[in-house]
Specification:
Strand content: under 5%
Order of helices and strands: H
Radius of gyration: 33 Å
């Protein structure tokens, strides 16, 4: 009788340990998914910043060509950036 009681108790402990293990695995999976989402959000933000940097780099290069006398007035603003809005540029001196 004592061995049956011991076996039942051991089975309960094993079931409890398995449930705890499953719960821990679920918690780890949730943590990993949150980290993956944060990493994806960070990467998306970085891609947006990289795009803006490239756009600003192109504008600076265009302005530098004009300053160096290698560009023309129409190079001042990139296409679609509102080059026709505002006062025209004065002639270079």
């Amino acid at each position: 009788m004592q061995s049956i009681h011991r076996d039942v108790r051991l089975e309960q402990v094993i079931v409890w340990n398995n449930e705890q293990h499953k719960q821990e695995l679920q918690n780890h999976a949730e943590s990993i998914n949150l980290m993956k989402q944060e990493l994806q959000d960070y990467q998306d933000d970085q891609d947006a910043r990289d795009g803006k940097i490239s756009e600003l780099q192109a504008i600076v290069e265009t302005l530098m060509r004009q300053v160096m006398g290698k560009g023309k007035a129409s190079d001042l603003m990139p296409e679609g950036a509102g080059a026709s809005v505002g006062n025209p540029l004065p002639p270079p001196r």
